[in-house]
Predict the 3D structure of the following.
Amino acid sequence: MRELGARIRRAYAANPLHLLALLAAFALAGYVVTHLASEPLFVRMLIWFAGAIIGHDLVLFPIYAVTDRSLTAALHRLWPRTTAKPAVSPLNYIRVPTLGTALLFLIFFPGILRQGQQTYLAATGQNQQPYLARWLLLTAGMFAISAICYALRTRRSAARDG
Amino acid sequence: MSYGFPSRLWRTLERHPPPGVGITQAWRSPLRGPWLTAVLSAVLLAGLPLVIVTGLLDYIAYGPRFGQAFPAGVGWLHLPLFDWPTRPAWLFQVTQGLHVILGLVLIPAVLAKLWSVVPKLFIWPPARSIAEALERLSLVLVVGGILFQIATGVLNIQYAYLFGFDFYTAHYYGAWVFIAGLTVHVAIKLPRLLAGLRSRSLGAELRTSRAGTRPEPPDPDGLAATHPGPATMSRRGALALVAGGTLLIAVLTAGQVLGGVTRRAVLLLPRGRSYGSGPTDFQINRTAKAAAVTPADTGSGWRLTVRGSGQSMVLDRPALRAMPQHTVRLPIACVEGWSTVQTWTGVRLRDLASLVGMTSPDSAHVQSLERSGLFNHASLQRNQIHDRDSMLALRVNGADLSLDHGYPARVIVPALPGVHCTKWVHSIEYRSG
């Protein structure tokens, strides 16, 4: 019996409990799918499920990674190491408000872009008119605060060096 | 490198990487590593179970016993069923509020966690054993599950049904797919999480500036970069960034549950909007126009029919106003994660029952004037009829209900989901047994 366990472990390359736990999870997911298979829009749900993974891993992540690399590279080009580099790197003072505004767009884009106007009106009796302006104001606020922080930080650093 | 069975397959796979995959030098951030991933995982492990449980509780609040919880016929996929209580009166406000607001504020942690493990997605070979292959396959349930739940939930609370399928069905079953994936993921990875947390001191990291930030040492999972660049941000900075995102979302959303002045901070969601300052100027869910209820239906010709024990009684609004009136301040809460507290006045549901000789009804069926629509009727449990504050409300904040809030009469029951607080009530039938 112990011999069999060891052989399974070698061939499977993990504890048999690992296999049992995974099979239980797949079986539960399968049970869920049996409930969904008769749904008229089941395929569309599957597409959204797969699309959520692809949308994050192969669209959103590459976009923000490439944007960040480009930003870092651009700042390097603007202030090469050899010349007088700003004592405080502006990188994070650009990154933080950009991420903030992107996060708000990611979550609240339906209002900002006025998606689902009919259902919105039926549910609330209102329209989605104010959201774009509010998002832009929040964006302006975040960048302004970041600029003030950067100015203070640069001044403090200059005072220290001078 | 050792291979499990069938080793030839895994070896062949390793020798034939598709273009662009397996370039480990491409990952530059020195912040990635078991410790950072473990910290973010610990945050999610603390928060997500609460989101899951409150979501499953909301299903019970809808009353599956009456077939009015969606989706119906879920087999074993539900918490143990019980009659949803009416006390504390803020119960549903808290469960749905936690579910939605906590779900929203965890989004930055989810994104950060995915960022911290993204190099593994491009690792080649994807597996060196059946164990590894199955484990990676299970990540489809975890990652797909959480992103699907976030996407459908975020769209639903903003009434943008871009997905086209039924929200309740997709979000409920999506949750169970996620539960399956998350449970096995935690079971397998918990030792890694604990080891990761122990690998560095949180206090020391919080005292380390960018200049002092060094890469985590190489780890067997390949989270830490093999060719790290210089740190552009400290670990405490990265954690503060995630915390800042969490705080930003909290400030912009929590007010739709907390109400009062905090609602003014809800700048980007429907339920932060003001309707004015009059007694009936509070959040509306489904307008009379959308429900096709017209002033003609609700004018002086309106009658309420009360039925039970073979009797029936027809009352007009003056007759209802002549009955003993009860006034109470109660929250009304929607499963979409918003609520409002108002002062309601009306006739107790148990007093209406006694009009037709029902002193101890077991359930009640309420029908709206609204002809179509998922929520044009609702069934109430025994405790929901007999609660001292359960009523057919006629007035709110000292004024008659407005048409959009259910004039001439609507149901108000403590801790009952808002959509079951039927508006424009046309009839109530009390039942026993």
Residues 1-38 of chain A form one domain. Chain A has six helices and no strands.
